[in-house]
Write a structure and sequence with these properties.
The protein has about 290 residues and is an alpha/beta fold. Helices cover about 35% and strands about 15% of the residues.
Length: about 290
Amino acid sequence: MKNELRIIGIPIDLGQKQRGVDMGPSAVRYAGLLSRLCELGYNIRDNCNIPVLIRAAIHEPQNLMPAIRDACELAYQAAREAVAAGCKPVFLGGDHSLAIGTIGGVTHEKPCGVIWIDAHGDFNTTETSPTCNIHGMALAVLNGHGITELVNVGRPGPKLNARDVVILGVRSLDKKERVLLKQSGITVFTMRDIDEFGISAIARKALETLAGHERIHISLDMDSLDPIEAPGVGTPVGGGLTIREAHLLMEIIADTRRLASMDIVEINPILDEQNHTAKVAVDLAVSAFGKKIF
C-alpha cells in the first residue's frame, strides 16, 4: 500500500434533521488535518468534496432518499478508486449516512474489519426507528437490513456481516433497534464495558474480534466522545469517551499497522465552540495514523 492518504469530503446533511454537518469537511480541513498528517510523513492528496445536493435544491423535501442514495453512490466510487490505487482514504463528513457509501467502497474487492465508534448503534430500519433518520440506519443498511435502494448502493446486497464489525462506545439505543442489533450477532462494547474493563482491554478485544482482517476501517462519529470533550455534534449523549480514552483507542489501532481507511463524521460547526470538535477530530485522526507521544 502506498504511503498516500486521500482526503475525500462528503458534505451531506440529509440523513438527519439538524442542519450544519455539511460544513464538517471544511471545519476539519481548517483545523489542520492535511498539514498534521503531512508531518507524519504521508503524501496527502485532497480530492476535495463530492457533490451533494442541498435541501433547498430538492423539490420534494419529504423525499430525500434519491439524493442520499446518489451521494452514497459517489462516495462508494471514490472509496473504491482510492483503495484500488493503493491509497488510504479519509472521509470527512457530513452525517453518518455517508458510511453506506464509504464502507461499501472500501470493501468492494475484499472484506474489511470495521470499528464503529459511536454513541448510537445506527442499526435502525424504517420499521424500528422513531425518527426515520437515515444516519441512524447506516450500519443496519451495510449489514443488509432496511431500504433496498440503500442496501444495493455500489453493488447488490450486504457489504458487511457480523464478524466484520465491532461497535464501541455505544450508550443510546432505541428499544426495537436493541432487539435487531442483538439478533445480528455483531460484537458490541458499551460505555459500561469501557467503564468496567478500561479502554485498553476493550480496544484489544475489538481487534481480536477482527483478527481475521488484514485491513481495518474506523468509522468515527464524534458524538462517541462526551459532549464536554466534543460539543459540536448534533446528537450529543452524556457519559461518553474522554479525550485520553479516545486517543488511546486510536493509538492501539495504529500499533497494528492495519488501519486502511477512516470516516470522521457528525461534526456540526454551528453547534461548536471555536472549532473545538474539529480540532479534537484532527488530533484523533493523527493518533490513528501513527503519531506517538514519545
